[in-house]
Design goal:
Helix content: under 10%
Oligomer: single chain
Order of helices and strands: HHEHEEEEEEEEEEEEEEEEEEEEEEEEE
Number of strands: 26
Largest sheet: 17 strands, parallel
Number of helices: 3
Length: 328
Amino acid sequence: MVSCFKRIASVSLLALALSCGQNGYAPLLSGLPYDGVACDETILTNLTSAEFLNLVQAGTSASSTYNLCIGPNVSINAGGTGYVTIDDSHVRIQGFDSTTSSITNLELNNFLGSPSATVSRMKVIGNTHPAATVVAHGGSTSYLVMINSVASSAGDTIYVNAGGGGDATLTVSGSTITSTGGKGIYAVQSGGGDLTASITSSVVTAPDHGIDLNNSGGGPLAVTLKSLTVTTGGTGIYLGNSGGGDLNSQMGALTLRASGSGASSVAIYAGNSGGGSLNATSSGGSSSACNVSGSAHTFSAATDINNSMGTLNDQFTSSINAVISTCP
């Protein structure tokens, strides 16, 4: 383990006291911030992508999660145009707070293994890239969990690309996802593997589709969407499966808000054209759709749920209120 005092010699004594244990190694954080996580490394100075990844590679193993705590006013890869790529590691990137602890252009890529990252209480920034990218190729799985974080990008903010038979799992909870020029969350599976997404208790804002989950590769698409507020210039939630697998969705307590300059659309679209079954169930409370006052973009209908080739089990449409002309 690298000495905490050597790594952060330039910081204040107070910062040292908050980040180092009595033996000088990072950290003993019982009762302190970082959500009570037992940090393996505490970072209190800005790092480039290469410097951060050196810590990741030095500390991770194939069987355990490596906890990296990012201090207040600390940035990883600030202003960088390249990715911070985690390819065969299991890490938790734990921020001090989601306002000042930041990472730019995070990527999980399973070229070398089955990477997993939990991002908690972080500000995740996209600079010429999505804020967070998940790439899953054949034979293994990429896992991304985002908790109590704030993510933003000029394009798609969270992007998942699973192909070649690889599986991808995305979990977002208690977070704010904002795009100024693309989709809030965009996940596509084109290689025959599984795509699983759970997005709950979060706020998504985007000029394009708020949440777009699409499987064209033959594998199943399993979706849980609950307690969300989605403000969008396109379709609020778009679920598509055209590869022959099943589309299974559980949705509830959704608030869909039309706002922007785009053409009218439905609030929620779910379609399966690949021969599998489409199961849309309601769980977690009733949902609603509305149009923001003065918005050129409006919702023409609350839902469009259909299956052109396989079986359809739609228990969701009856649980969402018709479009309210103006949002309260």
